[in-house]
Amino acid sequence: MPSHPFDAAIALEPTESRGMSRGRTSPDWANMVGPFGGITAAVLLRAVAVHPDRAGDPVALTVNYTAPVLDGTFDVHPRALRTNRTNQHWAVDLSQQGEVKTNATAVFGLRRDTWSDTEPSMPAAPAPEDIAPTGLPDAVVWAANYDMRYVDGGVPRPGDGPASSSTTTLWTRDRSGRALDFPALAAISDIFYPRVFLRRGAMSPAGTISLTTYFHVDDDELASAGNDFVLCRAHANRFSRGYFDQSAEIWSRSGNLLASTHQLVYYKA
């Protein structure tokens, strides 16, 4: 059994059904309803990463949260849809009792040495050592796995009132010192609380429907980030008729853009 709570939560075992593996939800990664969406994304990415037919590193992952995942076991079924010389397309389902709870598509690719550039600049922020540890309310169980230090846009407190901007910036890292890998980066892509909380100054029912993460580094570049803090920034573009979108970036302390993410969130307000 893996000793780290993250590795235990994404552990998968083969089943009698060809190509299918089985996992189990972890109480360490519980959310308000079901498990943290980031840990579910990490499970689906790992299911492809450990598949014997997988080629290359993750390039993109889109996860659609179709129904709440219940506590207990679940089955994961990755299927390679097409492979060519540079990239590979996958579909992945997570199901319980024969019902699909989450589905995903993933692209893995073989990266080549080419001309490269990063257009956005890393947000300016104080060093994480100069910011007091903060985080999310204790009721959000999964958040205890991270050391979070908000630069701006922290969780609204009673009396704060609505904010004029939906932007949140924070430093974060695994609290137990686990180094970053692609499943861990996929999980951090969903680390932001709903933007509607910040804009309205209060919590209300909300949940991610679809999350896409683009991975901008290969395995070696990601490994260089080690277990250090990463800087995360997120903002929404529009809130309308019960849905809002969120765009985010995740940067290494050294200034490498590790991933960018986009998601669609349902809310009541």
Automatic annotation (TrEMBL):
InterPro entries: ACOT8-like_C, Acyl-CoA_hotdog, HotDog_dom_sf, Sec_Metab_Biosynth-Assoc, TesB_ACOT8-like_N
The organism's place on the tree of life at top rank: Bacteria
Limits of the Acyl-CoA thioesterase-like C-terminal domain: 128-266
Signal peptide extent: none
Acyl-CoA thioesterase-like N-terminal HotDog domain sequence ranges: 27-109
Pfam families (UniProt xref): 4HBT_3 (PF13622), 4HBT_3C (PF20789)
Cross-referenced Gene3D superfamilies: Acyl-CoA thioesterase, double hotdog domain
Designated name of the protein: Acyl-CoA thioesterase
